[in-house]
Amino acid sequence: MKQRTQPEPVTSALLRDWLPEHEERGTVLVVGGSRRVPGAVLLSGIAALRTGAGTLQMATAERHAGGLGLAVPEALVVGLPEASSGAVSRDAADVLADFVPKAQSLVIGPGLTDVDETAALLERLLPMVAPDSPVVLDAFALGALGTHPSLGDPVRGRMVLTPNDVEAGYLLDAEVDDHVSAAREIAAKHDAVVNLMGVVAAPDGRLWQDSTGHIGLSTSGSGDVLAGLVGGLLARSPDLALAACWAGHVHAMAGQRLVPRTGLTGMLARELLDEVPQVLVELRTR
């Protein structure tokens, strides 16, 4: 397929014309969290529910599992063993062996720490993923993939990567000068759909760009919300590019709705979550 030299703009009209023909509401499994970053899994998990996941499962450091279950009573929560650093241990793969093969989509990375433990965990987890299930990688999972690109081999062609500029640099092993070219290169290198700062690139050369976002979306935890939105949409439709474009636009529009109340610099990532259902309604009906 010939590559586009310029991305196609993502608009509400485009997304309405690009609805999946058949939608299910499958199970999303979010794997992440650590002793120091317990809330990231919550943000991603609720985001997945807000975009229509039928069942939510969250796996995080054992010490936080009970509190997470109370905070999100809609979810099944699995406690995972910790390394001495407080990161989720590579041995968590043994606990997750009953859950990973049954998930319709997986989000791995929000709140994970320690790139070596994460890499070892991915090495064991990704071969367990069902053959038709997509995987969203975020945060330290992207750092691990950048250091060890072969980790993605078991799910090549079924990954969505949601890096920020720093994580994109790890994936490219180079500084990011231009989001369009960087997203295209990452997509081709890792055979994945990439959502990088509003640019969505598919490995076949297709490109889209969403200009709806603003500086407020750089707030802490916002990327965890985006990853969860993608995971929730993938539990309804397996189209990676569709999920990445829809999630990016919903994320940005949720931020736009908050601006009158919070300004550009006062919004919190958790506030985005309550805006998501109304954004979805508006996108589908206007």
Automatic annotation (TrEMBL):
GO biological process: metabolite repair; nicotinamide nucleotide metabolic process
Top EC class of this enzyme: lyase
YjeF C-terminal domain sequence ranges: 5-283
Assembly: Homotetramer.
Family from the record: Belongs to the NnrD/CARKD family.
NCBIfam families: yjeF_cterm
Record function comment: Catalyzes the dehydration of the S-form of NAD(P)HX at the expense of ADP, which is converted to AMP. Together with NAD(P)HX epimerase, which catalyzes the epimerization of the S- and R-forms, the enzyme allows the repair of both epimers of NAD(P)HX, a damaged form of NAD(P)H that is a result of enzymatic or heat-dependent hydration.
Protein name: ADP-dependent (S)-NAD(P)H-hydrate dehydratase
Gene: nnrD
